[in-house]
Amino acid sequence: MVRRMNADVLIAWLHYVSFMVLFAALTAEHLLTKKPITAPELKRVTIIDAVYGTSFVLVVITGLMKLMHYGKGAAYYMKVWQFHAKITLILLVFLISLYPTFTFLKLKRRARELPEGETLELPAGVKHALRLQLLLVALIPLFAAAVARAVGQFE
After folding, report:
1. N or C: less crowded end of the chain, CB within 10 Å?
2. Banded model confidence at residue 25, pLDDT cuts 50, 70, 90
3. Residue 115 region, left (φ>0) first, then alpha (ψ -120 to 50), else beta?
4. CA distance 105 to 8
């Protein structure tokens, strides 16, 4: 019983910390992206994007572990509509995140050939995608809190 409780606490802690890192990295990306962008700034943003992606994966893995082994059980979560809304938000955030990531990688290749001091144009859509992700990510804890309190269970 004690070992299971310790694993439960550790998984929950990793889930929360990963989510905080995800939000911090996404915020940093948003603040550091500007038009035009220099090669060193782009390199910094791509590193932060990698941190964001890694933390996203950790949030999903620890979330799945909580769903299947350490939380209240999948049957509980499937009865709460906010859980489904939360999963939908996570999928939307993932899909939206692909645009900035691929744009950064594409620009990074071009930046290697760029003369010192020259800049690259960052598409306006990247900043919009980052803002939309921030909004959606900020809503996820709202749904998580509702799920934890069994608000709105399906009958």
Report:
1. C
2. very high
3. beta
4. 37
Q: Which residue has the tokens 């439960």?
A: 8
Tokens standing for residue 32: 């550091």
For 11-84, list the strands marked E by DSSP: 37-38
Q: What token pair was written down for 65?
A: 């572990």
Query: Whole-prediction pTM value?
Result: 0.87
Q: Which of 134, 107, 109, 131 is nearest to 121 (CA)?
A: 107
The pLDDT mean for the chain works out to 89
CA gap 117, 55 in Å, rounded:
32
CA torsion 64-61-5-17 (nearest 10°) is -120
* Cα-only R_g, the chain: 18
pLDDT of residue 35: 81
- Measure Cα distances from 51 to 16, 22, 71 in Å: 15, 8, 26
Task: Look at residues 37, 36, 33 and name the one whose alpha carbon lies nearest to residue 25.
Answer: 33
Task: Collapse the DSSP code of 120 into the 3-class scheme (helix H, G, I; strand E, B; otherwise coil) and give the result.
Answer: strand
Rounded to whole angstroms, the Cα distance separating 123 from 34 reads 9
